[in-house]
Protein backbone atom coordinates (compact mmCIF):
# COMPACT_ATOMS: atom_id res chain seq x y z
CA UNK A 1 0.00 0.00 0.00
CA UNK A 2 1.34 3.44 -0.97
CA UNK A 3 0.86 6.72 0.91
CA UNK A 4 -1.53 7.94 -1.79
CA UNK A 5 -3.60 4.77 -1.49
CA UNK A 6 -3.77 5.29 2.26
CA UNK A 7 -4.94 8.86 1.68
CA UNK A 8 -7.62 7.69 -0.75
CA UNK A 9 -8.94 5.11 1.71
CA UNK A 10 -9.09 7.71 4.47
CA UNK A 11 -11.06 10.06 2.22
CA UNK A 12 -13.55 7.27 1.52
CA UNK A 13 -13.99 6.76 5.26
CA UNK A 14 -12.34 3.33 5.25
CA UNK A 15 -10.44 2.09 8.28
CA UNK A 16 -6.74 1.33 7.92
CA UNK A 17 -6.41 -1.96 9.78
CA UNK A 18 -3.36 -4.17 10.33
CA UNK A 19 -1.21 -2.48 7.69
CA UNK A 20 2.59 -2.26 7.55
CA UNK A 21 3.29 1.40 6.77
CA UNK A 22 6.72 1.55 8.41
CA UNK A 23 9.12 4.10 6.97
CA UNK A 24 6.60 5.54 4.48
CA UNK A 25 6.59 9.19 3.48
CA UNK A 26 3.30 10.94 4.34
CA UNK A 27 4.74 14.45 4.44
CA UNK A 28 2.12 17.16 3.89
CA UNK A 29 -0.70 14.72 3.10
CA UNK A 30 -4.27 15.30 4.24
CA UNK A 31 -5.16 12.28 6.37
CA UNK A 32 -7.69 14.07 8.55
CA UNK A 33 -10.36 11.88 10.11
CA UNK A 34 -8.37 8.71 9.56
CA UNK A 35 -9.02 5.53 11.54
CA UNK A 36 -5.73 3.70 12.00
CA UNK A 37 -6.03 0.40 13.87
CA UNK A 38 -3.23 -2.03 14.72
CA UNK A 39 -1.06 -0.59 11.97
CA UNK A 40 2.70 -0.02 11.97
CA UNK A 41 4.01 3.51 11.29
CA UNK A 42 7.46 2.86 12.76
CA UNK A 43 9.90 5.42 11.36
CA UNK A 44 7.24 6.92 9.06
CA UNK A 45 7.55 10.59 8.12
CA UNK A 46 4.32 12.54 8.65
CA UNK A 47 5.87 15.99 8.95
CA UNK A 48 3.33 18.71 8.18
CA UNK A 49 0.56 16.16 7.57
CA UNK A 50 -3.03 17.02 8.45
CA UNK A 51 -4.23 14.35 10.89
CA UNK A 52 -7.00 16.40 12.46
CA UNK A 53 -9.62 14.22 14.17
CA UNK A 54 -7.74 10.99 13.47
CA UNK A 55 -7.65 7.95 15.74
CA UNK A 56 -4.59 5.77 16.27
CA UNK A 57 -5.50 2.60 18.18
CA UNK A 58 -2.82 0.03 19.09
CA UNK A 59 -0.48 1.40 16.45
CA UNK A 60 3.31 1.50 16.28
CA UNK A 61 4.69 5.04 15.95
CA UNK A 62 8.13 4.59 17.47
CA UNK A 63 10.69 6.78 15.76
CA UNK A 64 8.00 8.35 13.56
CA UNK A 65 8.26 12.02 12.62
CA UNK A 66 5.17 14.19 13.11
CA UNK A 67 6.89 17.56 13.34
CA UNK A 68 4.59 20.51 12.55
CA UNK A 69 1.74 18.06 11.92
CA UNK A 70 -1.86 19.05 12.64
CA UNK A 71 -2.94 16.70 15.44
CA UNK A 72 -5.98 18.61 16.65
CA UNK A 73 -8.63 16.39 18.29
CA UNK A 74 -6.52 13.30 17.63
CA UNK A 75 -6.90 10.28 19.88
CA UNK A 76 -3.88 8.06 20.53
CA UNK A 77 -4.88 4.88 22.38
CA UNK A 78 -2.36 2.21 23.34
CA UNK A 79 0.21 3.40 20.82
CA UNK A 80 3.95 2.87 20.99
CA UNK A 81 5.36 6.29 20.12
CA UNK A 82 8.73 5.98 21.85
CA UNK A 83 11.25 8.45 20.41
CA UNK A 84 8.61 9.93 18.10
CA UNK A 85 9.32 13.48 16.90
CA UNK A 86 6.32 15.79 17.35
CA UNK A 87 8.06 19.14 17.78
CA UNK A 88 6.01 22.11 16.59
CA UNK A 89 2.80 20.11 16.12
CA UNK A 90 -0.60 21.55 17.01
CA UNK A 91 -2.63 19.55 19.53
CA UNK A 92 -5.92 21.28 20.27
CA UNK A 93 -8.08 18.79 22.16
CA UNK A 94 -5.61 15.95 21.66
CA UNK A 95 -5.58 12.91 23.97
CA UNK A 96 -3.10 10.14 24.71
CA UNK A 97 -4.27 7.04 26.64
CA UNK A 98 -2.27 4.06 27.92
CA UNK A 99 0.55 4.84 25.51
CA UNK A 100 4.33 4.62 25.48
CA UNK A 101 5.79 8.05 24.82
CA UNK A 102 9.23 7.58 26.37
CA UNK A 103 12.00 9.72 24.84
CA UNK A 104 9.52 11.39 22.47
CA UNK A 105 9.92 15.08 21.64
CA UNK A 106 6.98 17.46 22.04
CA UNK A 107 9.11 20.61 22.00
CA UNK A 108 7.17 23.75 21.07
CA UNK A 109 3.84 21.93 20.74
CA UNK A 110 0.83 24.27 20.91
CA UNK A 111 -2.72 23.42 21.95
CA UNK A 112 -5.61 24.29 24.20
CA UNK A 113 -6.50 21.11 26.10
CA UNK A 114 -4.00 18.23 25.91
CA UNK A 115 -4.81 15.14 27.98
CA UNK A 116 -2.25 12.45 28.83
CA UNK A 117 -3.57 9.54 30.89
CA UNK A 118 -1.63 6.51 32.17
CA UNK A 119 1.22 7.06 29.74
CA UNK A 120 4.96 6.51 30.04
CA UNK A 121 6.83 9.76 29.34
CA UNK A 122 10.20 8.77 30.80
CA UNK A 123 12.87 10.98 29.25
CA UNK A 124 10.30 12.79 27.09
CA UNK A 125 10.94 16.42 26.19
CA UNK A 126 8.11 18.96 26.46
CA UNK A 127 10.33 22.02 26.38
CA UNK A 128 8.49 25.26 25.62
CA UNK A 129 5.12 23.49 25.26
CA UNK A 130 2.27 26.01 25.17
CA UNK A 131 -1.11 24.69 26.31
CA UNK A 132 -4.07 26.33 28.00
CA UNK A 133 -4.76 23.13 29.95
CA UNK A 134 -2.21 20.34 30.07
CA UNK A 135 -3.58 17.37 32.04
CA UNK A 136 -1.52 14.42 33.29
CA UNK A 137 -3.36 11.59 35.04
CA UNK A 138 -1.33 8.74 36.49
CA UNK A 139 1.52 9.41 34.07
CA UNK A 140 5.10 8.23 34.51
CA UNK A 141 7.25 11.35 34.22
CA UNK A 142 10.77 10.20 35.08
CA UNK A 143 13.27 12.75 33.74
CA UNK A 144 10.53 14.43 31.70
CA UNK A 145 11.80 17.84 30.63
CA UNK A 146 9.38 20.80 30.88
CA UNK A 147 12.11 23.45 30.65
CA UNK A 148 10.81 26.87 29.64
CA UNK A 149 7.20 25.72 29.41
CA UNK A 150 4.47 28.05 30.72
CA UNK A 151 2.60 25.45 32.76
CA UNK A 152 -0.30 27.79 33.47
CA UNK A 153 -3.48 25.82 34.15
CA UNK A 154 -1.68 22.45 34.06
CA UNK A 155 -3.01 19.59 36.17
CA UNK A 156 -0.89 16.74 37.48
CA UNK A 157 -2.77 13.97 39.31
CA UNK A 158 -0.96 11.16 41.13
CA UNK A 159 2.15 11.80 39.05
CA UNK A 160 5.71 10.92 40.06
CA UNK A 161 7.60 14.15 39.39
CA UNK A 162 10.69 13.56 41.51
CA UNK A 163 13.09 13.67 38.56
CA UNK A 164 11.09 15.91 36.20
CA UNK A 165 12.85 19.07 35.01
CA UNK A 166 11.05 22.40 35.57
CA UNK A 167 13.83 24.88 34.79
CA UNK A 168 12.54 28.35 33.81
CA UNK A 169 8.91 27.20 33.96
CA UNK A 170 6.11 29.53 34.99
CA UNK A 171 3.31 28.19 37.19
CA UNK A 172 -0.12 29.82 37.44
CA UNK A 173 -3.27 28.00 38.61
CA UNK A 174 -1.42 24.68 38.44
CA UNK A 175 -2.67 21.68 40.39
CA UNK A 176 -0.31 19.02 41.73
CA UNK A 177 -2.83 16.70 43.41
CA UNK A 178 -1.37 13.72 45.29
CA UNK A 179 1.87 14.08 43.31
CA UNK A 180 5.35 13.09 44.44
CA UNK A 181 7.64 16.11 44.09
CA UNK A 182 9.98 15.13 46.90
CA UNK A 183 13.47 16.56 46.60
CA UNK A 184 12.58 18.99 43.80
CA UNK A 185 14.36 22.36 43.69
CA UNK A 186 12.08 25.35 42.93
CA UNK A 187 14.44 27.97 44.32
CA UNK A 188 13.53 31.47 43.13
CA UNK A 189 10.66 30.30 40.92
CA UNK A 190 7.16 31.82 40.90
CA UNK A 191 3.91 30.00 41.66
CA UNK A 192 0.61 31.90 41.53
CA UNK A 193 -2.67 30.42 42.79
CA UNK A 194 -1.21 26.91 42.62
CA UNK A 195 -2.46 23.94 44.60
CA UNK A 196 -0.52 21.03 46.11
CA UNK A 197 -3.26 19.06 47.94
CA UNK A 198 -1.96 15.93 49.68
CA UNK A 199 1.27 16.13 47.67
CA UNK A 200 4.61 14.73 48.80
CA UNK A 201 6.97 17.71 48.92
CA UNK A 202 9.42 16.25 51.45
CA UNK A 203 12.80 17.91 51.15
CA UNK A 204 11.63 20.39 48.49
CA UNK A 205 13.60 23.62 48.14
CA UNK A 206 11.36 26.71 47.82
CA UNK A 207 14.03 29.13 49.04
CA UNK A 208 13.38 32.69 47.78
CA UNK A 209 10.43 31.42 45.73
CA UNK A 210 7.30 33.52 45.19
CA UNK A 211 4.19 31.57 46.20
CA UNK A 212 1.19 33.84 45.75
CA UNK A 213 -1.94 32.45 47.43
CA UNK A 214 -0.81 28.85 47.07
CA UNK A 215 -2.52 25.92 48.77
CA UNK A 216 -0.50 23.19 50.50
CA UNK A 217 -3.45 21.58 52.31
CA UNK A 218 -2.54 18.14 53.64
CA UNK A 219 0.86 18.15 51.92
CA UNK A 220 3.93 16.50 53.42
CA UNK A 221 6.81 19.00 53.30
CA UNK A 222 8.96 17.58 56.09
CA UNK A 223 12.60 18.60 55.78
CA UNK A 224 11.79 21.18 53.10
CA UNK A 225 12.90 24.78 52.94
CA UNK A 226 11.07 28.11 52.41
CA UNK A 227 13.87 30.46 53.44
CA UNK A 228 13.08 34.05 52.41
CA UNK A 229 10.08 32.82 50.40
CA UNK A 230 7.26 35.26 49.63
CA UNK A 231 4.11 33.27 50.42
CA UNK A 232 1.50 35.72 51.69
CA UNK A 233 -2.08 34.42 51.91
CA UNK A 234 -0.97 30.82 51.47
CA UNK A 235 -2.67 27.81 53.04
CA UNK A 236 -0.85 25.11 55.03
CA UNK A 237 -3.91 23.55 56.68
CA UNK A 238 -3.17 20.06 57.97
CA UNK A 239 0.27 20.05 56.33
CA UNK A 240 3.18 18.07 57.75
CA UNK A 241 5.91 20.67 58.24
CA UNK A 242 8.23 19.01 60.73
CA UNK A 243 11.74 20.44 60.54
CA UNK A 244 10.93 22.80 57.68
CA UNK A 245 13.00 26.01 57.48
CA UNK A 246 10.84 29.13 57.03
CA UNK A 247 13.57 31.56 58.12
CA UNK A 248 12.99 35.12 56.96
CA UNK A 249 9.98 34.20 54.86
CA UNK A 250 6.94 36.41 54.28
CA UNK A 251 3.72 34.59 55.19
CA UNK A 252 1.33 37.46 55.93
CA UNK A 253 -2.26 36.26 56.60
CA UNK A 254 -1.43 32.62 55.88
CA UNK A 255 -3.43 29.79 57.44
CA UNK A 256 -1.65 27.00 59.35
CA UNK A 257 -4.60 25.41 61.16
CA UNK A 258 -4.02 21.77 62.20
CA UNK A 259 -0.52 21.85 60.72
CA UNK A 260 2.31 19.87 62.32
CA UNK A 261 5.29 22.20 62.81
CA UNK A 262 7.36 20.14 65.25
CA UNK A 263 10.92 21.43 65.16
CA UNK A 264 10.19 23.87 62.32
CA UNK A 265 12.29 27.04 62.17
CA UNK A 266 10.29 30.25 61.61
CA UNK A 267 12.99 32.59 62.89
CA UNK A 268 12.60 36.10 61.53
CA UNK A 269 9.53 35.15 59.50
CA UNK A 270 6.73 37.65 58.88
CA UNK A 271 3.67 35.94 60.34
CA UNK A 272 1.34 38.86 60.99
CA UNK A 273 -2.35 37.89 61.15
CA UNK A 274 -1.56 34.22 60.56
CA UNK A 275 -3.88 31.56 61.97
CA UNK A 276 -2.35 28.57 63.79
CA UNK A 277 -5.51 27.06 65.32
CA UNK A 278 -4.80 23.59 66.76
CA UNK A 279 -1.36 23.54 65.15
CA UNK A 280 1.26 21.32 66.77
CA UNK A 281 4.38 23.42 67.24
CA UNK A 282 6.46 21.34 69.65
CA UNK A 283 9.97 22.80 69.89
CA UNK A 284 9.27 25.11 66.93
CA UNK A 285 11.48 28.20 66.69
CA UNK A 286 9.95 31.69 66.39
CA UNK A 287 12.83 34.00 67.50
CA UNK A 288 12.54 37.48 65.97
CA UNK A 289 9.39 36.48 64.08
CA UNK A 290 6.73 39.14 63.55
CA UNK A 291 3.55 37.79 65.14
CA UNK A 292 1.25 40.81 65.46
CA UNK A 293 -2.39 39.64 65.55
CA UNK A 294 -1.36 36.01 64.95
CA UNK A 295 -3.73 33.45 66.44
CA UNK A 296 -2.40 30.32 68.20
CA UNK A 297 -5.70 29.39 69.86
CA UNK A 298 -5.81 25.70 70.91
CA UNK A 299 -2.28 25.16 69.51
CA UNK A 300 0.35 22.99 71.18
CA UNK A 301 3.32 25.29 71.79
CA UNK A 302 5.22 22.96 74.11
CA UNK A 303 8.93 23.86 74.28
CA UNK A 304 8.51 26.38 71.44
CA UNK A 305 10.91 29.33 71.40
CA UNK A 306 9.39 32.82 71.00
CA UNK A 307 12.33 34.77 72.39
CA UNK A 308 12.76 38.07 70.59
CA UNK A 309 9.50 37.63 68.65
CA UNK A 310 7.34 40.70 68.12
CA UNK A 311 4.07 39.98 69.92
CA UNK A 312 1.09 42.30 69.65
CA UNK A 313 -2.38 41.02 70.47
CA UNK A 314 -1.07 37.55 69.69
CA UNK A 315 -3.72 35.04 70.77
CA UNK A 316 -2.81 31.90 72.70
CA UNK A 317 -6.33 31.04 73.89
CA UNK A 318 -6.28 27.59 75.51
CA UNK A 319 -2.89 26.91 73.91
CA UNK A 320 -0.48 24.47 75.58
CA UNK A 321 2.41 26.59 76.89
CA UNK A 322 4.41 24.02 78.83
CA UNK A 323 8.10 24.83 78.45
CA UNK A 324 7.38 27.67 75.99
CA UNK A 325 9.98 30.43 76.08
CA UNK A 326 9.09 34.14 75.77
CA UNK A 327 11.23 37.23 76.23
CA UNK A 328 8.12 39.20 77.13
CA UNK A 329 4.51 38.09 77.46
CA UNK A 330 3.18 41.62 77.31
CA UNK A 331 1.82 41.25 73.78
CA UNK A 332 -0.02 37.97 74.43
CA UNK A 333 -3.77 37.53 74.69
CA UNK A 334 -4.07 34.54 77.00
CA UNK A 335 -7.85 34.54 76.92
CA UNK A 336 -10.25 35.48 74.14
CA UNK A 337 -13.64 36.59 75.48
CA UNK A 338 -15.39 35.94 72.18
CA UNK A 339 -14.06 32.38 72.04
CA UNK A 340 -15.09 31.75 75.65
CA UNK A 341 -18.60 32.92 74.80
CA UNK A 342 -18.70 30.67 71.73
CA UNK A 343 -17.51 27.70 73.80
CA UNK A 344 -20.16 28.34 76.44
CA UNK A 345 -22.89 28.59 73.80
CA UNK A 346 -21.70 25.37 72.18
CA UNK A 347 -21.74 23.59 75.54
CA UNK A 348 -25.34 24.65 76.19
CA UNK A 349 -26.55 23.61 72.77
CA UNK A 350 -27.52 19.90 72.34
CA UNK A 351 -25.13 18.08 70.08
CA UNK A 352 -27.89 16.07 68.36
CA UNK A 353 -31.58 16.58 67.86
CA UNK A 354 -33.78 14.55 70.14
CA UNK A 355 -35.14 11.57 68.18
CA UNK A 356 -38.84 11.78 67.31
CA UNK A 357 -41.06 9.97 69.80
CA UNK A 358 -43.04 7.00 68.59
CA UNK A 359 -46.72 6.64 69.10
CA UNK A 360 -47.56 5.02 72.41
CA UNK A 361 -44.32 6.06 74.12
CA UNK A 362 -44.60 8.09 77.34
CA UNK A 363 -45.05 11.73 76.47
CA UNK A 364 -45.96 11.05 72.85
CA UNK A 365 -48.85 13.02 71.42
CA UNK A 366 -52.02 10.99 70.88
CA UNK A 367 -53.95 11.15 67.67
CA UNK A 368 -57.44 12.60 67.97
CA UNK A 369 -60.23 10.13 67.34
CA UNK A 370 -61.74 10.99 63.95
CA UNK A 371 -64.90 8.93 64.50
CA UNK A 372 -68.14 10.82 65.03
Automatic annotation (TrEMBL):
- Known InterPro entries for this protein? 5peptide_repeat
Q: Does the keyword Repeat apply?
A: yes
Annotated region Disordered: the residues are: 345-372
> What Pfam families does the entry give?
Pentapeptide (PF00805), Pentapeptide_3 (PF13576)
- Keyword annotations from UniProtKB, A to Z: Repeat
List compositional bias (Basic and acidic residues) regions by residue number: 352-372
Supply the name of the protein: Pentapeptide repeat protein
Q: What is the lineage of its organism?
A: Bacteria, Pseudomonadati, Pseudomonadota, Betaproteobacteria, Burkholderiales
